[in-house]
């Protein structure tokens, strides 16, 4: 069996706030001290998880290279497996630089403890890293890795969203979702959209005034889309889900403010504000556009090969 080449992609060690809070009372001092200690503990948990993963890779004599995600500035190539150590954010960032040939395994380096959240609920939010797409933690990393190495585990192919602006393909494909909105959150976003099939309209043109438009993949349907009132999609579905955010007086088109884009369909949006931004998989990747620009969204992008958690529902 050929020796596997692995890229270990790491969430930065300085991702957690290090500056102490300004307090106005003794009660605040106590509460903020607890919150700050929690953040320090989170940073330590992440650092220890990185060391743990590296020790396992060394123990198995695997050829690996570790790099922090902020130092990665080009496409990921010439490796057999990417392991992201952090949370969903690190995995999402890695996906933007990957094609459909290399699989990825997510390791949640700092998972949330339900007991801890309950214990500190009166003082601060003790939620830790979200690892919805991460198949491993330090508790099962070696077991999951062994299964991959001997080819007992196969990656799933998860849909990504292809994005065109004025017929030009954007290099980044969305794994979770895209948000189209005015750069000011208090401003009204004006746009029109229609669903097309084979370049022909399969829906009427819908005119919107709202706080923006969100479109998600199945992987992203459990995130902001679900929080906004959407539904969870089967992870292996190839459809997209869209939702107009806070529509203003939709009237007869109210039933069209939330819907699906089928496998062979494209959602075409015409932007009718002076300026706008498209946020891809969160706030880190933002693409500007302007009045009259056309944005096309579909599930035609190459899928991502990902090792999903064993208990992940596929239907």
Q: Summary?
A:
Helices cover 19% and strands 33% of the residues.
Structure commentary:
With about 325 residues, the protein is α+β, with helices and mostly antiparallel strands. Helices cover about 20% and strands about 35% of the residues. It has five helices and 17 strands. Strands 1, 2, 3, 4, 5, 6, 8, 9, 10, 14 and 17 form an eleven-stranded mixed β-sheet that branches. Strand 15 and strand 16 form a beta hairpin. The longest helix is centred in the first third of the chain and has 34 residues. The two termini are about 35 Å apart.
Secondary-structure blueprint of this entry?
Blueprint (H helix, E strand, L loop, with lengths): L4 E6 L15 H34 L3 E6 L12 E6 L1 H8 L8 E5 L5 H6 L21 H9 L6 E10 L2 E2 L7 E5 L7 E9 L2 E2 L4 E5 L1 E5 L7 H4 L12 E6 L12 E4 L3 E7 L3 E6 L4 E6 L3 E14 L8
Parallel strand pairs: 1-2, 1-3, 3-4, 4-17
Antiparallel strand pairs: 5-6, 5-17, 7-11, 7-15, 8-9, 8-10, 8-14, 11-12, 12-13, 14-17, 15-16
């Amino acid at each position: 069996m050929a020796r596997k080449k692995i890229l270990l992609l790491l969430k930065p060690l300085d991702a957690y706030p290090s500056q102490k809070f300004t307090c106005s009372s003794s009660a605040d001092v106590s509460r903020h001290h607890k919150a700050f200690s929690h953040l320090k503990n989170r940073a330590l948990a992440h650092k220890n998880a990185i060391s743990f993963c590296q020790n396992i890779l060394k123990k198995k004599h695997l050829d690996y290279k570790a790099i922090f995600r902020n130092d990665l500035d080009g496409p990921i190539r010439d490796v057999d497996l990417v392991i992201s150590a952090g949370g969903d954010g690190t995995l999402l960032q890695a996906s933007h630089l990957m094609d459909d040939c290399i699989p990825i395994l997510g390791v949640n380096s700092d998972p949330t403890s339900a007991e801890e959240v309950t214990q500190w609920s009166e003082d601060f939010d003790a939620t830790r890293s979200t690892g919805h797409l991460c198949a491993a933690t330090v508790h099962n990393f070696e077991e999951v890795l062994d299964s991959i190495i001997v080819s007992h585990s196969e990656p799933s192919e998860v849909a990504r969203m292809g994005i065109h602006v004025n017929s030009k393909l954007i290099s980044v494909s969305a794994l979770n979702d895209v948000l189209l909105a005015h750069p000011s959150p208090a401003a009204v976003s004006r746009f029109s959209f229609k669903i097309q099939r084979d370049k022909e309209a399969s829906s009427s043109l819908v005119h919107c005034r709202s706080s923006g438009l969100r479109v998600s993949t199945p992987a992203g349907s459990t995130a902001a889309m679900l929080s906004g009132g959407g539904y969870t999609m089967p992870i292996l579905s190839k459809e997209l889900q869209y939702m107009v955010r806070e529509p203003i007086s939709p009237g007869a088109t109210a039933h069209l403010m939330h819907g699906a884009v089928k496998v062979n369909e494209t959602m075409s949006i015409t932007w009718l504000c002076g300026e706008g931004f498209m946020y891809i998989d969160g706030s880190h990747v933002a693409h500007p556009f302007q009045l009259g620009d056309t944005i096309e969204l579909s599930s035609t992008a190459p899928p991502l090969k990902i090792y999903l958690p064993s208990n992940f529902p596929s239907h």
